[in-house]
């Protein structure tokens, strides 16, 4: 008796769900769909039902380069190539190094993060943070964020290399 009630409830719920789905589906009406592909794309975009990879009479929404063709990205990787990388996400626009100690010191290490704010080779296109970690003998570590001469040095090296790469790319295209 109990299983019969459960079966009936399942059937009713299934019937209600299937019936409500049918109301929301729209059939394709050939009279409302333009035959020309460009017009169909424009209509879909205007109705919010699609996207475009090129422009349809408007300006581009965004410009995406491969990582190897972005001079700032390449210059940043080349500048930080002596450090192990913890994260390098081109689409997210960030490079984070792992903790690094140049003289083999266990007590002090440095970590650098580079955020890309723009693809243009300008000083405000990068946000560089340098973190220092100092540990005592008891392994009590203090991490501090210092924007100092090292971050300015890194920024200058990146921008200089990026300008050289940009010049090389322009001469190759000619």
User: What share of residues is helical?
Assistant: 25-40%
Alpha plus pi helix count = 4
User: Outline, from the CA principal axes?
Assistant: flat
Largest beta sheet: strand ordering: 1-2-3-4-5
Counted up, domains total 2
Order of helices and strands: HHHEEEEEH
Unreliable stretches (pLDDT < 50, length at least 5) are: 55-64
Task: Count every beta strand, where a strand is a DSSP E run of 2 or more residues.
Answer: 5
Instruction: Classify the beta-strand content into a percent band.
Output: 15-25%
Keywords:
174 residues, alpha+beta, five-stranded antiparallel sheet
SSE blueprint and pairings:
Elements: H1 2-24, H2 37-46, H3 71-79, E1 85-89, E2 94-97, E3 108-116, E4 126-135, E5 141-145, H4 149-173
Antiparallel strand pairs: 1-2, 2-3, 3-4, 4-5
């Amino acid at each position: 008796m109990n299983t019969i009630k459960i079966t009936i409830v399942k059937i009713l719920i299934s019937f209600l769900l299937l019936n409500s789905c049918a109301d929301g589906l729209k059939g394709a009406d050939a009279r409302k769909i333009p035959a020309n592909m460009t017009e169909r794309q424009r209509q879909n975009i205007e109705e919010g039902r699609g996207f475009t990879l090129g422009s349809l009479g408007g300006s581009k929404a965004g410009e995406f380069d491969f990582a190897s063709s972005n001079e700032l990205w390449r210059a940043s990787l080349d500048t930080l190539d002596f450090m192990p990388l913890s994260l390098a996400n081109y689409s997210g626009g960030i490079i984070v190094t792992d903790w690094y100690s140049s003289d083999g010191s266990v007590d002090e290490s440095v970590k650098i993060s580079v955020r890309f704010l723009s693809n243009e080779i300008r000083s405000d296109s990068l946000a560089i943070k340098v973190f220092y970690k100092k540990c005592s003998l008891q392994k009590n570590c203090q991490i501090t964020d210092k924007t100092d001469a090292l971050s300015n040095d890194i920024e200058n090296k990146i921008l200089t290399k990026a300008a050289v790469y940009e010049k090389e790319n322009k001469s190759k295209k000619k």
